[in-house]
Amino acid sequence: MKKKIAIILGSKTDLDQLKDGIALLKSLGIGYRLEVISAHRNPEKLRGFCGMLAKNGFEIVIACAGKAAALPGFVASYVDIPVIGVALGGGLLDGLDALFSIVSTPKGLGLTCSGVGKSAFINAIIVALEILSLKDKRYRVQLKILKNKFK
Question: Is this model's pTM higher than 0.90 or not?
């Protein structure tokens, strides 16, 4: 299957928080593209990446960020596809600052948040598969397998 899920991470140092979810995607054979681009340090690169998402067939973005967590809102402001924000643990408030940042995004942006940390990333993957399965029934099988892992 063509890659439909883009995963954007704000910092390489947070990659460890995504490893369980990435392993699940790989085990299910679900194509994805992972990019590490900071909204704060490299906004032009992030803007360019957002501009190519829909053109290249991506249908959903999982944007993962910690601390100030501008990344999910930034992405949502540049794309017309669903964006799921994941607040990552760490920093002074261990992810609560990131959570508050994501859920405080101004009206007018299609952004949702799946929570904080590793479990939130896995839940974001599940929501992404639920969205993709609305148009492509092949994702339903993988979705069912994934959900059964947690029963």
Answer: yes
Q: What is the pLDDT of residues 23-62, one digit of tens each?
A: 999 999 999 999 999 999 999 999 999 999 999 999 999 9
**Which two three-digit tokens encode residue 115?**
């929570």
Residue 47 to residues 18, 41, 51, 78: CA-CA distances in angstroms? 23, 12, 6, 7
Structural domain containing residue 32: 5-148
Question: Which CATH number characterizes residue 17's domain?
Answer: 3.40.50.1970
User: What is the distance, to the nearest Å, from the Cα of residue 126 to the centroid of all Cα atoms in its chain?
Assistant: 11
Nearest to 50 by CA among 77, 12, 86: 77
**Per-residue CA distances from 56 to 59, 75, 139 (Å):** 9, 16, 19
What total number of domains does the chain contain? 1
List the structure tokens of 144: 């069912």
What whole-number distance in Å separates Cα of residue 6 and Cα of residue 150? 23
